[in-house]
Amino acid sequence: MQNKFKSRTFRRVKVKTATETVTQYRKPKPSKAKCAGCGKVLAGVPHQRPYKMQNMPKTLKRPERPYGGVLCSSCMRKQIISEVRK
Amino acid sequence: MIEVGRVCVKIAGRDAGKKCAIVKLLEDNYVLVDGETRRRKCNVKHLEMLSEKVDIKVDAATKDVCKALSVDFKEKKNKEVKAATVRPRKQRKQKVKENKKPAKEVKKKVATKKAVKKDAGKTSTSTTTE
Question: Which chain A residues in 43-72 lie under 8 Å from chain B, judged by CB atoms?
Fold first, then answer.
């Protein structure tokens, strides 16, 4: 086993081959998307490897509202209210 | 503050940040809203009231609300009904039918062939006997 696989950052998958079952190592997922205002983990934004994200439609990748996928809902609300009350 | 004609901004959902006016008061905490947003029932918590007010009747049509808010209103276009056209494949079939020659008389030909054969046989036998 290579040294980099000793830490648990890589996912282990057992694959059945013709002769034996082998453990293979899958690359780690990117980090979760976070709100630009408060740093909360964003809901409704998947974190997948880029090749999976490419095939996803836009509507699956972010909520359908202004600042969707950038700000959380409460931060977005504050932002809009501050703009309106100027 | 919450009354018919009050201009507000939606702060939740996909219409967030869009201007609208209250059209009707529904159950407590719920109002009917129209304007830049879609015409829909809305919780008062999801609205930011403004100081402006607009003259509209209760349950006013979208057209009037848009006019009062000076928002572009797109009317639905009535689609022109196309006259039924003859499909190209049908047209071709019709043409073929018109240009088709009358069927040949097959029965007669077969009969003549048989007769010829019989004649040929007879002639051959006749030659051998000779």
Answer: 64-66
